[in-house]
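Please check the following.

. . .
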Amino acid sequence: MAPVQPRYVNAGSFLNIARQVFDMMDTDLNGSLDRDEILDGVKNNKKVKHFLKNCGHEDLQFLMDPERLEPALKAIDEDGDGQVGLMEWEHAIRRALNRKLRAAEKRREELRRKKIEKAPLKELREFLMRMNDRFKERCKAEGTVSTLRGNWERMFNEIDDDGSGRIDYGEFNGAVYAMGLEEDPKLLRDFWSFVDEDDSGEVRSRRPI
C-alpha cells in the first residue's frame, strides 16, 4: 500500500535535514560526495537512508539501489566530474521539495472536495450570515464599514489576540456565544470541521466560506 501523502510540508525543515544528510555522507569534508561515501552513508546511517527513502524524488531514492546508483549519480552530477557537489545536491533537493509541495497541495485539494461533498453547505452559510448580522449591528453602532469578508476577518483577529495567525475550536466557540448566538453544538462542529481544512484543530484562514 502506498503511503498517504502529507497535507503540509515544512520546507525549511526539509532543506535543513537535507543539508545535515549531505554533511553526514561527506566524511572527508571536501564539500562533495563520491560513490563510496554515498554507499557508506546508505549502508551505515539510518538517518541518511530514511531521508533518501522519503525525499520524494527518484534520482535521490535510487542512490540506495546499487543497480541504479550509477544512472542516479549521472542525473545529479551536473558537471560530470563523478561527484555530487553541494550545489548539485541542493538542486536535486529543490526538485524533490517541489514534488513534495505539489503532492501536498493535491492532497489538500482532494480533502477539500470531500468536505464540500459532505458538508451541509446551506446550514453553514446561514450560520455564517447570522454571525455576519451580529457584526453588522456592531459596525452600525461604531460607524464602521460592514462586509462579509471584513467581518469574518475582524472576528478572526479578535479571537487571535496573540497574532499567531491561528485559532482553535474553543476560541471560536467562545466567540460565537460572546456574540449572543445560541447555536446547535453539532452545527458549530460542522462549521469548524469545514473551515479546518487540514484537520489540525486550528484554523489559519481569515476567509469566510
